[in-house]
Amino acid sequence: MTAIVGCEQAGPQPAWPAQPPTPAQQSVGLVRQFVERTGQLYSLPAVAVEVLRLTGEPRVDARSLKDCIERDPALTARILRVVNSSLFGVSRPVTDLSQALALLGTRPLKMLVLGFSLPKELFSGLEASVLGRYWRRSLVKAVAARDLAEKLWQTSGDEPFIAGLIQDIGSLALIQHLGPSYIQLLDHVQSHGGNLLDRELDTLGFDHVVLSSRLLAHWGLPASLCAAVSAPADEARIAQLEPGQRTLTQVLHLAELLARLIEQPFGPALRDLLNVGARYCGLTYDKLQALVSAVQTKVNELAEVLALELPAGSSYVDLLIAAQQRLSDESAMAAVELAGTGREDQLLSLAGQMRRDLQLAAERGPLHAPPLAPTLTETPTEPFVRSPLRGPPPEAVRRSQPFPVPAAVEDVGLSGLVTAAMGRCRQARCPLSLALFQIDGFGELLLHVGPGVTTELTHWLQSALSEWTAQPAVARHVSDSSLAVALEDCPRSEAVRLARHVLEAVKPWAAARFDSAKLTLSAGLATLEFPPKNFPPHELIDGALRCLSGAELSGGDTVKSIEL
C-alpha cells in the first residue's frame, strides 16, 4: 500500500467530484467569518491611533506625542498614576508627561497608552462581577509577567506587562457576542477546573487569545507582540520558536499559569507552574511564594489607581499554600476531579449552546449579545455532536439541534448490533459495553489525503479493533470515520482498559503503515451491568455518543465512559 497519510502525493491528484462542505469545513468558515468580523467591529480611540502613527515615524517627536496624549485628560491622569505606583518604582514623583516620557522612554509610554485605550464597546453593558473578574485576571497576568521578566529573566518588563494586560481582550469580545453562554463557560471552568483555552478551542474552533491577536493586529500593534499574545501556552510548541521569540512567550506562559492558579487553587496549575517554570527560568516554590505576595500588592494598588473594583477573595499567598497542600495529596486532587455529578453533562450542553450563539453572532455581526440563554439545568442535555455518528434522539433533543441531524444509526446497522448483543448478555446475565471509536481530525485528514486513503484506513482499523479488543465479532463501520464494538461480558472498568489499550496501540500501528501518520482516536463507552428486558437500544447508543462527544470536547486521544 502506498504510504501517503500525512504527506503530499507525487504526480497529478485525482479530480474528486465536487462535494458539499463538511461540518468541519463549515466550522472553519464560521470561525474565520466571526474572527474577521470582530476585528472590523472594534476600533481604537483617536488618541491611541495618533500615538501609533507618531511612534511609527523614523524619529519620534516627543513634544507632539506629549501633546497628543494630553488631549485625553483622563488617560493622562491614569498613566501618571500608574507610573508613580510601585509597579515602576521610580525614584522621584512624576508630575507630567514630559517627565514620564523622559523616565520611561517612548516605547513603554506608547505601550501604556495602548493598554489603557481599549475600545469602550468591549466594556459596555458588562455586569460588575464579569468585568471585575476580567480585570483581576488581566492585572495579575500583567504584573506577574513584568516581575517574572525582570527578576527571573533579567530583562525589561515593559512589553510583558502590556502583553499580559491585553492578552485576554478577546474574551471580552466573546462575552459581547455570545453573552450568557460564554459567561457560563467561564463560571464552569472556574468552579470545576480545566483549561479555558482548550474548552474554547474544542467548542468554537478557536480560543480567545487568537481573537486578541487578531484585534491587536487590526489596530496596528507590533507583529512581535501579536505573535507572542497568540502563541499557545504549551512548552513543546514554544520550544519550536526562534530563540529571540521565546522569552516573551515563556513569560506569558508562566503568567497564564499563575493567573490560573489563583482562579483554580484546587487544580494542577501549581504543579504545571513549578515544572515548567523550573525548566524556563529556575523557578522554585520559595521564589514563587515571594513573587505571589508582591503580585497581589501591586495588583491591589493598580486596581485602586485605575478605580477598578476587583472580586473579593482569599489572599494569593493563602491560595498558593492551599494549592501546595493539595499538590502533596494526590488523592484530594483526584477527589476534586471526580466531584460534581453531571459536570460533563453540563459542559456538553453548554458547548451546544455556545455553538448556536457563535452561528448567530457570525450571521448577525452587531455588538449586541444574544438573548439570555437557559440556565444549565434548563438547557437540553444533548449538545451538538461533531461526530457523524447519531442515534435517534428524543424528540425534544431533535428540536433543539442547531444543525441538521445526520442519518440515524439504524441505517448502518448499529441498532441491530446493540439489540442482538443485549439479548445475548441478558440470557448470559452478564454486562454489555458499547464502544464507539472516532478518528480525531477526520475532516482535515480527508481534505489532505482524499477519500480513497481514508476509506482504506478505516477498513484497516476495522480489523485491528477486533484484534485489539479480543472480540469474536468484527468491529462495525458506523460512518466514514467511526467504528463500533459491542463488548459482551465486559464491565465498565474492563471496557475502559480495553479502550485505552486501543488508543495507545493505534499510534505505532498507524506509524508502521503510513509515513508521518499521527493518528489518534477518541472513544466513548456506555455500559449496562445487566441489560433489562425491553431496554431501548438507542439509550445505550446515545450514552456512548455523549461520551464520545465529551472525549472530542476534551481534545481527543482520550476515553470517556458512563454506566447506565
What do you see in this structure?
It contains 26 helices and 5 strands. It is mainly alpha-helical. It folds into 3 domains: 22-42 and 125-366, Hypothetical protein af1432; 45-117, no CATH class; 410-563, Alpha-Beta Plaits, CATH 3.30.70. A 5-stranded mixed beta sheet has the order 2-3-1-4-5. Helix 26 links the parallel strand 4 and strand 5. The protein is elongated.
Residues in helices, as a percent range: 55-70%
Widest sheet: strand order? Answer: 2-3-1-4-5
Looking at the structure, the CATH topology of the largest domain is: Hypothetical protein af1432
What is the CATH top level name of the largest domain?
A: Mainly Alpha
**Mean of residue pLDDT?**
74
| Low-confidence sequence ranges | 1-27, 330-341, 365-412
SS element count, helices = 26
Q: Any guess at the CATH architecture of the largest domain?
A: Orthogonal Bundle
Tell me the major beta sheet: 5 strands, mixed
Distance from N terminus to C terminus (CA atoms, Å) equals 42 Å
Extended strand count = 5
What Rg do the Cα atoms give? Answer: 27 Å
Helix/strand structural class: mainly alpha
Beta-strand fraction estimate: 5-15%
Number of domains: 3
General shape = elongated
